[in-house]
Amino acid sequence: MMDNKTFIIAGIIVAVFIGVVAVFFASADPDGLESTALVVQGQKELTGGTPENAEIKEDLTDKFSYTSLMPDYALGEELGPLGGLIAIIVGIILAFLVVLGLAYGIKVTNKPAK
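^ thats the sequence. predicted structure below, dont judge the formating
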């Protein structure tokens, strides 16, 4: 039987492998939300492909906005695909740490008082 440490390490390895392999199968077309925004703005047909120069126009006047640390799962144009792989691995590790922290918090709160 596998102990917890080995199970966690194996899970991280599998998650990183799936994340790295998935980069090569990812679609260049925008997801449903972005695609819908492009259709509403008249830059794309509902059933057609996305034009190369299509860009979502946002009205951010007097509205909260932010910039993602790793937009489109990349670290900039200069790193290219390597930046995407680094972003995926960092994202997987950060997600793991968040879940580990939550699990630890739940464990501590459910521990009976002595």
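Residues 4-109 form one domain.
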